[in-house]
Design goal:
This protein has one domain. The chain contains 18 helices and two strands. The chain starts with a helix and ends with a strand. The protein is globular, with a radius of gyration of 23 Å. The chain is an all-alpha fold and 485 residues long. A two-stranded antiparallel ribbon has the order 1-2.
């Protein structure tokens, strides 16, 4: 009798274990269906920026520092605003798709184009007056002049953000972003020979490198337009519509809270680069810090892809009203991100000393990067976890809460601590980086606590209210301006 009961219990445990493995596998497939194309596209997109930095670095050390300054301060500043404001599209499109309101997704996309285009145009003086801004904040004159010149060449490039960021979120909400991965891979494949042609064959120097960057980046946008307008999104794209101009204020409000949340995180590194610019050997400090941040951000592209997957999975399930699926998805996402973080942590420890020579031939910069490799490894580990938690917040529409967390952790803890350790001790750049790590560490624990304490039943109700507020009946749309196929 006892043997029979034990056998039944054993079979039950095996069945439960088997069901759990299947659930994890099924959820992982859903996550990676969104995340993998995003990983490829983000790595390729950021890879073009890093590759351009490599070409610039082999032209001139001063231009390397100038490019690093523009990329890390100006471009990241603008990208942070647009990425943050675009994440409102991610929330709305994800929840609309989950609720079966696919016809609204094209309207949300058009609204985001309007809001982002106007926002970027207002921000153009950052690039136009780059030299004056860099001198005003106390950067060395040679670096400020180089940065100001390079920033003008970034203007055609940054306008691709208006479309590329929002379209990626629109497509990944319906698990159709594999097309972006293919186009981005093509972009990166074209970018290297294009840069070599302009920089070395045609001997165009900095202008050649920047023209190649803009051309390859707009290739992605053109490919995305062809895919959407060509009829491959028939349920979510119904053509251009004057409905895009309706309720813009409500979209702007959600976009601003999203923008603040993401900007505070992306600008965090920019502020630390600014602090590095006041060190005794500013050129070496900025270059070394920027190289480490580029490596960190390159891995961060994977984390951002998981952020997108977290947003899509949470938003879809909230739209469907499935609380259990939301909680299970969060657990799978966190487990996945930890495994990835540990892998790159080890990889960075092993190869940390050789990273700098991908970007520069300067031994002083390479030695400075080597000194930062241990701290870089810990940053990569932490940055694999916090973006997933931010993605959960975006999917639920809780951007405002996370914005407050980011403000406190980064700017009231991380930056002051980094400044104190960097300037009042012998740690210098290491001290700045330690402050950055402390800010991210506190942020991670805060987001974990918020996720744990969130009432997901309430979030389902809020998602329903949000969708009802923006809803347009598909049979009562304002007249279409241009119909899709």
């Amino acid at each position: 009798m006892d043997d029979g009961i034990e056998t039944q219990l054993l079979r039950y445990e095996e069945e439960v274990e088997g069901n759990m493995k299947r659930r994890i596998w099924d959820e992982s497939k859903k996550v990676w269906r969104v995340a993998l194309p995003s990983v490829i596209s983000r790595l390729c997109a950021f890879g073009t920026i890093v590759a351009t930095q490599s070409f610039v670095g082999h032209i001139s050390d001063v231009d390397l520092a100038g490019y690093a300054l523009v990329q890390t301060l100006s471009v990241r500043f603008v990208n942070g605003i647009l990425l943050g404001m675009s994440s409102a599209t991610e929330t709305l499109c994800g929840q609309a798709y989950g609720a079966g309101q696919s016809h609204m997704m094209g309207i949300y996309l058009q609204r985001s184009w309007i809001v982002d285009f106007i926002s970027l145009t207002v921000l153009l003086p950052i690039f136009i007056f780059g030299t004056q801004i860099f001198k005003l904040i106390g950067e060395e004159e040679s670096i400020a002049n180089s940065g100001g010149y390079i920033s003008l060449w970034f203007i055609p490039f940054v306008y691709n953000f208006v479309f590329s960021l929002t379209i990626q979120m629109y497509l990944q909400a319906q698990s159709k972003n594999m097309i972006i991965a293919w186009i981005s891979a093509l972009q990166f494949a074209i970018h290297i020979p294009l840069s070599m042609l302009f920089v070395y064959k045609l001997n165009m120097g900095i202008p050649g490198a920047m023209i190649a960057l803009s051309m390859s980046s707009w290739l992605v946008v053109i490919g995305e337009f062809i895919y959407i307008f060509g009829g491959w999104c028939p349920h979510s794209w119904k053509g251009f519509s004057i409905a895009a101009f309706k309720d813009l204020l409500s979209v702007v409000k959600l976009s601003i809270s999203s923008g603040v949340m993401v900007c505070l995180e992306l600008w965090y590194n920019a502020v630390l680069v600014l602090l590095a610019g006041y060190m005794a050997d500013a050129e070496v400090a900025i270059s070394a810090f920027s190289i480490c941040l580029n490596v960190n951000v390159w891995e961060f592209m994977i984390s951002l892809s998981l952020l997108g997957a977290a947003c899509v999975r949470v938003a879809n399930e909230l739209g469907r009203g499935n609380v259990k699926a939301v909680k299970f998805s969060i657990k799978v996402l966190l487990g996945t991100s930890v495994v990835i973080g540990v892998f790159f942590f080890v990889l960075c420890l092993v190869f940390g000393k050789n990273l700098a020579y991908l970007f520069t031939d300067d031994d002083k910069v390479a030695n400075a990067v080597s000194d930062l490799s241990l701290l870089l490894s810990f940053s990569i580990l932490l940055n694999s976890i916090s973006p997933v938690l931010s993605g959960v917040a975006i999917g639920a529409g809780m951007q405002g809460v996370v914005a407050i967390v980011n403000l406190v952790c980064f700017y009231l803890i991380g930056v002051p601590l980094g400044a104190l350790l960097g300037y009042l001790t012998a740690l210098e750049v290491k001290g700045i980086w330690i402050g950055m790590i402390c800010g991210v560490l506190v942020q991670t624990f805060a987001l974990l606590y918020i996720t744990w304490r969130t009432n997901w039943d309430d979030q389902v109700k809020k998602a329903s209210e949000r969708l009802n507020r923006f809803y347009l009946n598909p049979n009562e749309h304002p007249k279409q301006i241009t119909n899709g196929k």
